[in-house]
Amino acid sequence: MRLIASDLDGTIVGHDGKISARTVAAFDAARDAGVGIVFVTGRPPRWLDPLVDHLGHDGLVICSNGAVLYDLGKRRVLSRTTIAAADVYDARERIEGSFPDARFALESLAGFVVEPGFLDIESIELTELQPQWIRDVLPRRARVTGDVEEEIPDDESVVKFLAKHPTLTPDAFLAEVRDLVGDLVAVTHSSPGVALVEMAPRGIDKSVTLARYAQHHGIDAADVYAFGDMPNDRQMLRWAGHGYAMAGGHPEAREAADSVAPPFDEDGVAQVIERVLSANGHREVATTSTATATAATPTSTAAPDPQDPARA
């Protein structure tokens, strides 16, 4: 094991916004053993502070489903792959033509822009964030517009385009949108219980950017342990030499992985890390799991400015 690549939400971060003390200890032990750690998430860079606050991670993070490589320590975007404005327009037209009730949003390096009706407590993209953050902060940080296409920045720095449907199941909407726009953009989803699809630049997913990261550091796929739980993790789990889907995770993730980690609520990722470290002769990891480290996104007084391109 030379590199651990872990998803965040539903994998090590719960819907209550917490990371268990056992998980923190396992990552600390891996780091002490010389194992590289990179987090690979659908979150945008500005919602990564918990990694610094509670896991002590100030290195690189692969964000926005692979579209952005971000340096947490320097608060700087190192690389980005963006969706062409023309592809946003075409994807919107095709989806809306089949699903007139769909609502849209886009994530760019300038911020998060949503259409009326997209942003609500039950169907917000990032339900993994603490409810208080969703209620009190996110609605003020998102810019609401009647037409998200008009808000595409001049530099076309769109890293994620989103579509939400009010009544379809998540998997049904995902399948439909893949068929409609799969030739334009990469389509996935990561929000359990919400018919919300996430579109990235075509040819980009978590595995693509992770493979580049590993190659840059001279690490073979065979030496990578990857963890995830949703469709947006499936390519990463398939690419890694040791891909672990969380027990209870989405069927697409479980089918892509060659192994299943114990459930999230049993500190599944920590259990795997502990076992591998022990098998390689490293120190025993403390396994206390009753204490937790809160991984809430900062309160509104400390939340990053979504207009700051370096923190978008």
TrEMBL record:
An example GO CC term for this entry is: cytosol
Q: Where is the composition biased (Low complexity)?
A: 286-304
Pfam families, per database record:
Hydrolase_3
Q: Which domain of life is it from?
A: Bacteria
Q: Which GO MF terms are attached to this record?
A: magnesium ion binding; phosphatase activity
Region spans: Disordered: 280-312
Among NCBIfam families, the record links this protein to: HAD-SF-IIB
Q: What is this protein called?
A: Haloacid dehalogenase
